[in-house]
Design a protein that fits this description.
CATH superfamily of the largest domain: Tetrapyrrole methylase, C-terminal domain
Largest sheet: 5 strands, parallel
Number of strands: 13
Order of helices and strands: EHEHEHEHHEHEEHEHEEEEE
EC number: 2.1.1.131
InterPro entries: 4pyrrol_Mease (IPR000878), 4pyrrol_Methylase_sf (IPR035996), 4pyrrole_Mease_sub1 (IPR014777), 4pyrrole_Mease_sub2 (IPR014776), Cbl_synth_CobJ/CibH_dom (IPR006363), Precorrin_MeTrfase (IPR051810)
Structural class: alpha/beta
Strand order of the largest sheet: 3-2-4-1-5
Protein name: Precorrin-3B C(17)-methyltransferase
GO biological process, one term: methylation
Number of helices: 8
CATH topology of the largest domain: Methyltransferase, Cobalt-precorrin-4 Transmethylase, Domain 2
Radius of gyration: 20 Å
Pfam families: TP_methylase (PF00590)
Oligomer: single chain
Shape: elongated
Helix content: 25-40%
């Protein structure tokens, strides 16, 4: 089978944050598949086809890309951030599991990228320097009570929490509810970082406390990092403070 599918992480958005491996995979493709805003990040190449689709069409997009690869094309499926973090790598694997046998014979490669929580963390210090977890606040593919349970357990276990998909026009209330729940489990002084478009020209990094965290500071381009009682803030004269999680765990 001459075709192949590469699932590529483009990083958080700035061209300089894309890995050389990802750039090479994109350049080598005959056809690019992806969510339209992600494809728009990439320069046009003569002879290279683009097939954009809506954000809620992941399985259909994965299936179309697999079909194109079976037909002999060198296909790149692009994702923002890392393709394995709330993105297209899982959709491709799911499509292969439930699809025709010929899809399993394809050459499929996953190319990693810098995911949003890492980009945001790097802009403010090292808030993920100790144990952490990532939770998507979208309840499109899982029930909201499960999201609440995971938030509560993560807070009780002492994990720093990275929140993906915090808010959207269709889901305007979930982040506020998440903050309410976490205030029941954590001190109000716990640091909260709102990291929007980290590394891009429209970047906005805002540090708040859990007690004063305002959901209106977030949109779908924002990753929210919520610290623990052990998270430290280091003031710096004339510079943004450093936020970090100490490497040593607290005594039980």
């Amino acid at each position: 089978m001459s075709g192949r599918l590469t699932v590529v992480g483009l990083g958080p958005g700035a061209a300089r944050q894309m890995t050389p491996e990802a750039a090479e995979a994109v350049a080598a493709a005959d056809i690019l598949f992806g969510y339209a805003p992600y494809l728009a990040r990439l320069p046009e190449r003569p002879g290279q086809e683009r097939r954009a689709s809506d954000n809620r069409e992941e399985i259909a997009r994965a299936s179309a890309a697999l079909e194109a690869a079976v037909a002999g094309a060198k296909v790149a499926m692009v994702s923002g951030g890392d393709p394995g973090v709330f993105a297209m790598a899982a959709a491709v694997c799911e499509a292969i599991e439930h699809g025709p046998a010929e899809w399993r014979a394809l050459d499929v490669e996953i190319v990693p990228g810098v995911t949003a929580m890492l980009a945001v963390a790097a802009r403010c210090g090292a808030p993920l320097g100790h144990d952490f977890c990532a939770i998507s606040l979208s309840d499109n593919l899982k029930p909201w009570p499960l999201v609440e349970r995971r938030l509560a357990l993560a807070a009780e276990a002492g994990f720093v929490i990275a929140l993906y998909n915090p808010i959207s026009k269709a889901r305007p209330w979930q982040l506020g509810r998440a903050f309410e729940l976490l205030r029941e489990k954590l001190p109000g002084s716990v640091p909260v970082v709102f990291g929007r478009a980290a590394g891009r020209e429209d970047e906005r990094i805002v540090l708040a406390t859990l007690a004063e965290a305002d959901p209106a500071r977030a949109d779908m381009a924002t990753c929210v990092l919520i610290g623990t009682a052990e998270t430290r803030i280091v003031p710096r004269a004339g510079r943004s403070p450093l936020v970090y999680a100490p490497r040593s765990a607290p005594a039980p």
